[in-house]
Amino acid sequence: MQFPVIDCPLGDRYYLNGEIIRSDDDRALLLLRPNDAVKYYETVRIREGVLLFIEDHLARLVKSVKGIEDFPVDPDFIASEAKQYLKDIGFKEEGNLRIVLTREDLVMHICEGNIPSSEDFSKGISTNILQWVRVDPNLKVFRGDYKSAVAECFGREGEHGLPYEVLLTNNDNKIYEGSKSNFFAVIGDSVYSAPDSDILIGITRNRVIQALESAGTSLKYGTFTVEELHGKKAALFVSSTPFDILPVTYVEGYEFDSADNEILTQISREYRRLTDEYIRSNK
């Protein structure tokens, strides 16, 4: 299935191969049209003018390219161009930078970001379930059939309204990750996540693992059905670049007491500390 290189852009100035182009430029209009090119992408959170954990994002971008086409990628050059692009367009707000790489082009633009509300953090979010097993889960590449299935699931309104996130289950109905996030379950004093081989290794997930170790616990590997998690009185949360750490209160018809979980609160506090330290050291 074809998809455009530029997707859900904000603003009217895009980066294309070392040049800033306007949204009405013929080259921009071409990038907004669906095409067959293989597209590798990263979405980097911008906070206080800092591209958060950009070196980790670009390392994953290199890995994704190597996994399919293996053409040369210079992460230091991309990082430098990204910072210059933000400077050139005068972007100083909080937001998201989308970096897209094809064999021919390097494209960047500010993109829409589903920034959580304070209530999402304090009360938790609602989610739907989609049974879907990713192809090459460690590679971040556009896949049209997956994107369409996720969009349909996001549009399915439940008892608690439209979902904030969609949780993916494997063929055994066990939740292994979110459509745009990594999934964790706090069961007793332990934190569980799916094995690395089954998921896209999130940039925020790596920092969450550091945070939970600082909070006095450690990561265990395991997956569970929603019924099993409910029976174990688990506290659930998801992590992602756009929204950091969010407690999950509803999984379709099941309710979880996640937002008030003490271990989850400690992990969130430690994650914020790590993030603040990164911003201070990179300003």
In brief, what are we looking at here?
The chain is of the alpha+beta class.
Which features would summarize this protein structure in a list?
283 residues; nine-stranded mixed sheet; six-stranded antiparallel sheet; 33% helix; D-amino Acid Aminotransferase, Chain A, domain 1; alpha+beta; D-amino Acid Aminotransferase, Chain A, domain 2; 2 domains
Describe this structure in words.
This protein folds into 2 domains: 13-111, D-amino Acid Aminotransferase, Chain A, domain 1; 118-280, D-amino Acid Aminotransferase, Chain A, domain 2 (Alpha-Beta Barrel), CATH 3.20.10. Helix content is 33%, strand content 27%. The protein has helices spanning 26-31, 54-68, 75-89, 118-123, 144-154, 203-214, 226-231, 262-282; strands at 13-16, 19-22, 40-47, 50-51, 95-101, 106-111, 125-131, 165-169, 175-178, 182-187, 190-193, 219-221, 235-240, 244-251, 254-255. Helix 6 (203-214) packs across helix 8. The longest helix has 21 residues, at 262-282. The protein is globular, with a radius of gyration of 19 Å. It starts with 12 loop residues before the first strand and ends with a helix.
Question: What layout of secondary structure does this protein have?
Answer:
Layout: E1 13-16, E2 19-22, H1 26-31, E3 40-47, E4 50-51, H2 54-68, H3 75-89, E5 95-101, E6 106-111, H4 118-123, E7 125-131, H5 144-154, E8 165-169, E9 175-178, E10 182-187, E11 190-193, H6 203-214, E12 219-221, H7 226-231, E13 235-240, E14 244-251, E15 254-255, H8 262-282
Parallel strand pairs: 7-8, 7-14, 11-12
Antiparallel strand pairs: 1-2, 1-6, 3-4, 3-5, 5-6, 8-9, 10-11, 10-13, 13-14, 14-15
